[in-house]
Amino acid sequence: MLRISALIPILMFSLAEPRAAYAVDLNKHPELVTFIDEMVERHGFSQEELRELFTRAKIRREIIEAIERPKESLPWYEYKKLFITDYSIQRGKRYWKKHAQTLARAREKYGVAPEIIVAILGVETQYGRNKGAYRVIDALTTLTLKYPPRRDFFRRELEEYLLLTRELKIDPSRIKGSYAGAVGVPQFIPSSYRQYAVDFDGDQKRDLIDNAIDAIGSIANFLKIHGWEANEPVSDDVQLEGTLYVWIEKLGVKPMLSVRNLINYGIFPHNREDTEKQAALIVLEGESGPIYRIGYNNFYVITRYNRSTRYAMAVYELGERIREQRENES
Fold first, then answer.
1. Rounded-to-integer distance, Cα 281 and Cα 238, Å
2. Which of 38, 78, 108, 124 is catalytic?
3. Whether pLDDT at 5 is above 50
4. 26-59, pLDDT tens digit by residue?
5. What is the rounded distance in angstroms from the CA atom of residue 199 to the CA atom of residue 218?
6. Contacts of residue 237, Cβ cutoff 8 Å, sequence gap at least 6
7. In the beta sheet, which residues pair with residue 279?
8. Are the C-beta atoms of 241 and 266 separated by less than 8 Å?
9. Which of 87, 106, 275, 286 would bridge with 291, disulfide CB 3.0–4.6 Å?
10. Known catalytic residue: 124?
11. Phi, psi dihedrals of residue 27, rounded to the nearest 5°
12. What is the rounded CA–CA span in Å between residue 255 and residue 262?
């Protein structure tokens, strides 16, 4: 979950650091020694164990390279080809069939449509098949030490990760995840794991690493807490007239204006049954020019999972394709 987009590319490794990966030298990173001391004082960790853990951690050049070139920076017409494929749609249908009971229970409890949960899992990890190849301790240590634009964020996530692995009684040196430190089937960053993961199968564990049932329930819980509205739309096609709509593009993805107001500015949704519903104008890159949609509150909620509008639209469109094909075959 939550791939972190880089704002600007930065050369993080000097010519004196040519290796793709190398061990952490605590003598060269006093900020990491300070972090260890804080974890000992604030949370009761063993200083000896943490020093040993970090001396076995690796600084990895490819993690910095990956975060500077996230998939979400691709234009929409390229980005969608990565996720909205016949293969992913077919796998999504099979995943839905296999976990239909759990998805139905998640919908009943949290109000989240099954196709959205399935699509998030498809985009994030190919339905649990690709949970990440980087050791989380390497990813978060590298980003804390070598990525100044988000150093404070990743330092907090490193703290959350150590707390999480202690709670789960898991060796922090063994868990693998994304280049940004997201873990498990739904790719939750450590702070989200600790805050939003649920035990959805009743086994007294919150296992997002190997347990699809907990992953489904946790995604639904995350979306519900962030404002998901049951049985409400996500997005809609629009027809544009005139040029008054141009300034609305700059308002962002959070719904700020009612459909009635959007119509006044020349933005005509396909569905106009509820003109008091708030929406935002979404602009995506097509091969021959901009593509315009509107996003309702539930579209905005998906962007709380990953801030990219391309990501949210990929989830929505993949989910729609899976749902439509499933309904056509039933």
1. 9
2. 124
3. no
4. 999 999 999 999 999 999 999 999 999 999 999 9
5. 8
6. 269, 270, 293
7. 257
8. yes
9. 286
10. yes
11. -65, -25
12. 11
